[in-house]
Amino acid sequence: MLFFVENEFIDVVREAGFDDVFTFCAPSPEILTTLSQKTGTMGEPIELHNQHHKWALHVPKNGFIEIIDKVKWADIETIERLSPPPLAYAFDYVLTSTMEAHQETGATLWGDYGYCWPEEIEQTRDRLINCEDPIDGELYFVPIWHLPNELTGAPREPMIIDDETDGQD
Length: 169
What we know:
The chain has 169 residues and is an alpha+beta fold. The protein has helices spanning 29-39, 100-105, 121-129, 149-152, and strands at 2-5, 8-15, 21-26, 46-47, 55-60, 78-79, 88-96, 109-116, 142-144.
């Protein structure tokens, strides 16, 4: 379905295999970066090959998407895949705490995010729904095409090497 946004036409579709996620297709990554900031998606613009629109952004259906609020989910066309297989999935969620330690501080709701490998989606969903503090609301998995440090085991902070002291005691 075509929409006119930021003086450009973008196409919004659903890709088979990406449950509960819209795919926004545009001629440039800049318009998708703007949409990304407005929707709160953890997805990033990716380049498509052999497509009319050269760029895509994946947004969960719970993202604040003002341009398509009046369109029913079922009315957005479902197509075969435009995007290559993702390397991982990103997800964010809200937790409601029943633990006394959290109730003492008054913090009973808080948000968190995570990443999982493609084959771990159902296991991750079950773990978050059936934990001591289950998620509050829906859980959507957004495909991503980079490898987050949290999945690769890489350090979160860059290592700082002091060249002046290397090899000296």
